[in-house]
Amino acid sequence: MNQDILFADIQTWHVERQAISFPAQQAGALIECWVSLSWLQQRTSNSLVSEADIVAAFIHLRFDLEELAEARIEDEDYEQDGSIFIG
């Protein structure tokens, strides 16, 4: 893992966006990363309904998600708002 990109052990479910956000930091800049509910459901092969189940799935897949987000940050594959989206 690239030590220039740090991930905090924080995640937040956003019902209106149907996604979890998790922050990354690179050279002091905060980068908001997102993973969609559909991505989590596809990877777990489960229908995730409750917030607790969704967050648990995220935590279970955290390492893979951080790797994917790191690769996108390194490739500068940002959304228009400067965030990273996995979905």
Structure characterization notes:
With 87 residues, the chain is α+β, with helices and mostly antiparallel strands. The protein has a single domain, classed as 2-Layer Sandwich (Double Stranded RNA Binding Domain), CATH 3.30.160.140. Helices cover 37% and strands 29% of the residues. The protein is built from two helices and five strands. Strands 1, 2, 3, 4 and 5 form a five-stranded mixed sheet that branches. Helix 1 crosses helix 2. The longest helix has 24 residues. It is globular. The chain starts with a strand and ends with a strand. The mean pLDDT is 94.
One letter per element, helices H and strands E, the order comes to EEEEHHE
CATH class bucket: Alpha Beta
**Total count of strands:** 5
- Structural class of the secondary elements? alpha+beta
The overall number of domains is 1
InterPro entries: DUF1488, Shew3726-like_sf
Protein name: DUF1488 domain-containing protein
Topology:
Elements: E1 5-7, E2 12-14, E3 19-26, E4 29-36, H1 37-44, H2 51-74, E5 84-86
Parallel strand pairs: 4-5
Antiparallel strand pairs: 1-3, 2-3, 3-4
Helix pairs in contact: 1-2
Quick structural overview:
With 87 residues, the chain is α+β, with helices and mostly antiparallel strands.
